[in-house]
């Protein structure tokens, strides 16, 4: 009898422990499922939404936009990158990336866009730039359409652009992914070159007038991150640079773009031919102007090309 009671007791204990384990397992699974779902769920903005744009204006957006007009090619690129390209109904005559944007209705250029063409697209929002025209944008706003100015002047402001666009279009998570990818790539490149000797660089924007990229340009920032020293950093923005001063600065490397000139032309041009870069044959052409001048996520491609041109040994 005692043996029988003992066996029953053991059975009950085992059963209780089994039920506890099953319960714990189910709870763990439920928690895991809940956590997984919370990670996948996109956090949507609540409308009406108030945004401070790059002009410092507070803009109220009454509803989530489903019809977007972009008046800046770089902004268009970012809109497509974060996954809101399907909502773009109007772009400038100069938009060419990504390729699918070529089939989107054109509403004019950077400066003085066609108001009638913009309004004909019945946009819920217009993303403008500083060049879009104050009077034109006020006309659009008077029609009840919010205008948000996006105008990044450096890489950190590209991140700000992505955050604003992501919040407005309901693509915050994708925007954060793009920002992280950019930061990781920039760090990876900079880590390879930061301890190497700085290379003196001159960037040729246009040989006609000897235009270059001075302080405050994306190209100046990219040269610095790529382990270089922009010899024209004593100039501000896009500037004509003295040929006499260029020869005096004697850059180790000259960089230019496909539309400006080819390497042989620069190598044999007056002034340029007297530089160390020309004598050593260290003149290279960036593959695409857009990746060093447009404030989009593709700017990291330009950084990588410049870094490889300045420090090829770091990328073997």
Automatic annotation (TrEMBL):
Residue ranges annotated for the Fe/B12 periplasmic-binding domain, each copy included: 67-314
Pfam family membership, one: Peripla_BP_2
PROSITE patterns: FE_B12_PBP (PS50983), PROKAR_LIPOPROTEIN (PS51257)
Record has Signal as a keyword: yes
This protein's UniProt keywords: Signal
Gene3D superfamilies: Nitrogenase molybdenum iron protein domain
Keyword Isomerase applies: no
Signal peptide: 1-25
Superkingdom per UniProt: Bacteria
InterPro entries linked to this entry: ABC_Transporter_SBP, ABC_transptr_periplasmic_BD, Vit_B12_bind_prot
PANTHER family the record matches: MOLYBDATE-BINDING PROTEIN MOLA, VITAMIN B12-BINDING PROTEIN
UniProt family annotation: Belongs to the bacterial solute-binding protein 8 family.
The protein's name in its UniProt record: Iron complex transport system substrate-binding protein
């Amino acid at each position: 009898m005692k043996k029988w009671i003992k066996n029953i007791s053991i059975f009950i204990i085992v059963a209780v422990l089994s039920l506890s384990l099953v319960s714990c397992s189910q709870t763990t699974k439920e928690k895991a499922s809940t956590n997984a779902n919370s990670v996948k769920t996109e956090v949507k903005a609540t409308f009406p939404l108030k945004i401070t744009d790059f002009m410092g204006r507070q803009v109220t957006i009454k509803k989530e936009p489903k019809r977007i007009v972009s008046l800046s090619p770089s902004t268009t690129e970012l809109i497509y990158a974060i996954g809101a390209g399907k909502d773009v109904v109007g772009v400038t005559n100069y938009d060419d990336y990504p390729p699918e944007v070529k089939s989107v209705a054109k509403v004019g250029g950077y400066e003085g866009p066609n108001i009638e063409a913009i309004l004909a697209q019945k946009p819920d929002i217009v993303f403008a730039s500083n060049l879009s025209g104050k009077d034109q944008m006020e006309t659009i706003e008077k029609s009840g359409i919010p205008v948000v100015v996006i105008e990044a002047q450096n890489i950190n402001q590209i991140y700000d652009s992505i955050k604003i666009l992501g919040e407005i279009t309901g693509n915050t998570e994708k925007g954060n992914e793009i920002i992280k990818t950019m930061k990781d790539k920039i760090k990876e490149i900079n880590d390879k070159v930061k301890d190497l000797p700085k290379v003196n660089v001159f960037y040729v924007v246009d040989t006609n007038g000897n235009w270059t990229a001075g302080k405050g340009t994306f190209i100046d920032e990219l040269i610095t991150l790529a382990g270089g020293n922009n010899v024209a950093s004593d100039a501000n923005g896009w500037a004509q640079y003295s040929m006499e001063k260029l020869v005096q600065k004697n850059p180790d490397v000259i960089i230019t773009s496909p539309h400006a000139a080819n390497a042989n032309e620069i190598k044999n041009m007056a002034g340029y031919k007297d530089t160390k870069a020309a004598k050593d044959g260290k003149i290279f052409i960036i593959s695409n102007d857009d990746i060093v001048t447009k404030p989009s996520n593709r700017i990291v491609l330009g950084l990588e090309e410049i870094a490889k041109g300045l420090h090829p040994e770091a990328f073997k």
